[in-house]
């Protein structure tokens, strides 16, 4: 847990304390930190609404002010069960009714795991921690909204009220957060996506399946061009794979049955012969299994490694309809994917190069605030939550940590949150207005290549299994473009702008029109996305029209410009930049695009 998550999770305990002071019968389930805050699930006959927030916050303030210690107590399973039965967990003291959800949670804690309680003031909760030292360490907090949720996410279980809030180190940081949310509303990618004609959704196509209009497609293709150039320079090779595969592939990879809920249901093909079983195909939820097959398709020797297979692969995931959100949560996504197959000796250098690629992209997009969240394993859970290869865990984690430290990358280490088959890094970035986005994940994988039987012939002629690094610095087009729309507020830099240049005439003289056409032709000849506005609308209206669609650069041409061989330059958001010789203005445009100036 990060410091902020600790504050937020601790605040969930304070929330529960306050609710119990008002409604002693409340039954609590889970209360974790989440993106931008925390929640606590509660069962309560009274329906909590935002009108109740002030009253609950009043009680919470008292708890924070009292500055109670978060006291950790280890208990045996029997003690924990007894406390739950007496209603003393997530409670202020014994109650007439058992703490039923906590009782269920206790009985599901695996054998051998340490069971801990945390106390703040009168309140005791079953919790693994960690927390802040004292309630007074919660600098500022606010309840934000209520939703409903089934216990353990299962609709056969009771429906609970999910109370959301957020907390910060201090009031200034909290205020900055709420100011940022206000600004973010204006930059909402769904709103700008509609206004700028970038993408849309259609009921007949299906929820969560974005359709890209021509302007949005420009963004996609510019990003792909950037990724292809960058990956080519870094020694990647490109592959292409189909969007679906037979069931067997996912049984090998382990996606089935464990990941089945996140996949679209299978397509069943009736067999052509008698007595044959049905052939099932699934839309791919990840590109890895296909890439592993490509690694295995050719005899590999140590000379082939590192092998870096890249693809902007389209994946399909069955997100619950309640989880869908604009471009941020979708059911079809195009991923900036690649898998690097390497030896243990090559791992460190490969990992370093991946990080370098991130930093390069951050510079291009003017992302100056980011954090890498490095999730490691817990030695106590080898063989259960984490693949049982102690030595490889320690070795790769050391290497990852070393690379992160030496390259001066901003990172936090989070124990016990690695993927099953290796350490992972989630990359969080902050937009220009300070909103946080998780855009990408890198994973080290030392289990799956073995499952696929991937080998290379080493120098000594023995067969060895390669390590695999999964990486996707630009995440998915959907999420990354959603981020960029907000980051730039739709005012994309020239190289990325769907409408780069519009040539606008003042007047209708033939010579003037010919001059404008000549400039337009020259720009188009160099693949600049230039449009020509020769209409006889007043120039003010023509400019307003271009500004509305956030056309990056306007070349406004009147008779005086024609005589001087010049153009009047206008940049969206910056206004009139005065007259410039035509050749100079055009050369500037070419340079800004080819250098991808911010
Ligand atoms: Zn806790
Ligand atoms: Zn992968």
What's a concise summary of this model?
It contains 18 helices and 28 strands.
What do you see in this structure?
This protein has about 600 residues and is of the alpha+beta class. The protein folds into 3 domains: about 5-185, Threonyl-tRNA Synthetase, Chain A, domain 2 (2-Layer Sandwich), CATH 3.30.980; about 190-265 and about 280-490, 2-Layer Sandwich (BirA Bifunctional Protein, domain 2), CATH 3.30.930.10; about 500-595, Anticodon-binding domain (Rossmann fold, 3-Layer(aba) Sandwich). The radius of gyration is 29 Å and the shape is globular. It starts with a helix and ends with a helix. The mean pLDDT is about 95. One zinc ion binds near residues 286, 287, 288, 339 and 470. One zinc ion binds near residues 9, 13, 118, 125 and 131.
SSE arrangement:
Elements (H helix, E strand, L loop, with lengths): L2 H20 L4 E2 L4 E2 L2 E7 L9 H14 L4 E5 L1 H9 L14 H8 L7 E6 L2 E4 L13 E11 L8 E10 L2 H16 L2 H7 L3 E2 L10 E2 L1 H20 L3 E2 L5 E3 H7 L1 H4 L8 E3 L9 E5 L4 H9 L10 E10 L15 E11 L1 H21 L5 E6 L14 H17 L4 E4 L9 E7 L5 E10 L2 H4 L4 E2 L5 E2 L2 E5 L5 H12 L12 E5 L4 H16 L4 E4 L5 H10 L4 E5 L1 H6 L1 E6 L3 E7 H13 L4
Parallel strand pairs: 11-15, 17-18, 24-25, 24-26
Antiparallel strand pairs: 1-3, 2-3, 3-8, 4-5, 5-6, 7-8, 9-10, 12-14, 13-14, 15-16, 16-23, 17-19, 19-20, 20-23, 21-22, 26-27, 27-28
The site of one zinc ion has 7 residues, from helix 1.
